[in-house]
Every structure is written in structure tokens, then in C-alpha cells.
Description:
By secondary structure, this protein is an alpha/beta fold. The chain has a single domain (4-170), classed as Leucine Aminopeptidase, subunit E, domain 1 (3-Layer(aba) Sandwich). 38% of the residues lie in helices and 18% in strands. It has a six-stranded mixed beta sheet with strand order 1-6-5-2-4-3, sandwiched between helices. Strand 5, helix 4 (128-145) and strand 6 form a beta-alpha-beta unit. Helix 3 (91-108) runs parallel beside helix 4 and helix 4 (128-145) packs across helix 5 (159-170). The protein starts with 6 loop residues before the first strand and ends with a helix. Bound molecules: adenosine-5'-diphosphate. Adenosine-5'-diphosphate is lined by residues 13-15, 25, 35-37, 39, 81, 117-124, 155, 157-158, 161.
Amino acid sequence: MSVKERIELIEGDITKLDVDAIVNAANSSLLGGGGVDGAIHYAAGPQLVEECAKLGGCPTGEARLTKGYRLPARHVIHTVGPIWRGGSNGEPEKLANCYRNSMQIAADNGFATIAFPAISTGVYGYPLQEAAQIAINQVIECLNEMPSIKKVIFVLFGRKNFDIYTDILSNLK
Ligand code: ADP
């Protein structure tokens, strides 16, 4: 199966996905927040924040693994995206690291299926097109190195992001 065939796009709510791991766009406290983070904690139930509290936070660009509790997903990989401050403060590298480090955790734990939201594109203000390009480039690089990961699903909340990802993927060879 080609790398492109191992990538799937869905418009919808990541908390509904039955996969080995969903990725959470968390903040560095890992103690919950708004957006996708709030939705994941709400759906997972209170045990998730209890496990997160034991992790002692997470620096931007890194990732941490917990169980999924009441989610259909078995695990949550929490990663902290960069806050957009104009783009010349290391934002692209940090965002790429979020995808790479999350994929590495999935590979290290033998996960076959992983779902990502569009990290940093909500409250953190990362421009959608630039963020999508980084997400797809980084995931493709990782899929080439990580044959045990069979499927990466980008779960896009809203038509606009879905259309941007669709365009980028359809222009790949
Ligand atoms: P960040 O702080 O990293 O910007 P946000 O949660 O504010 O995180 O937004 C990240 C992306 O997740 C945005 O594109 C937002 O529309 C999307 N999002 C919000 N809720 C969900 C959800 N339930 N499932 C998937 N994506 C979601």
C-alpha cells in the first residue's frame, strides 16, 4: 500500500473515532482546555485528567501518552502545538515536531491506527494552509519510516480545513 493510501481525511469530531490513538492538541499543563482538548476530556471522563496530572506537563513540540478511558479510542497522545506569533519564532519546526513525536509514540507502542486534529489551528492561531502543509509533509515522512502504522486519519473540524487538506493530498503524486 502506498503512503498516500495510508492517509485518510474525515470531516468531523475526533472524539468519535475508534482507533488505537487519537492525538490531542493540548496546552503545556496537560490539564485540559477548550477546543478539541475540552471535547476529548469531556468524552474520556474524569480519569483522563487524573492521569494527565501525574505527567507534570509537556513542553511545546513534545508528546505524552495516556489511556483513552471512555473514548472509543484506546489511547490519547497529548501534544502541545506552538502559539502562532508571526511564523519566525520556530513555529514551523515546533509544529512539525508535534506530528513527528506523536507518530513516534504510535510506532513505539505498536499502534496501527492514529487520528490527528489540525494542531494549533484553533485558539493558537496557526494559518490553516501552512499548518496543513506541515502536517501532511511530516506524516508522509514518518509513514515512510514507520511501516507498522497502517492508517493516519486527519480529522478536520469544518469544511474549510477539510478542503485545504483535500487539495494538498490530491496534488501529491
Ligand atoms: P489549538 O489550541 O492547538 O489551536 P484548538 O482545539 O483550539 O487547539 O483547535 C485545533 C483544531 O481542532 C481546530 O482546527 C479546531 O477547529 C479543531 N477541533 C475542535 N474541536 C474538535 C473536535 N471535536 N474534533 C476534531 N477537531 C476539533
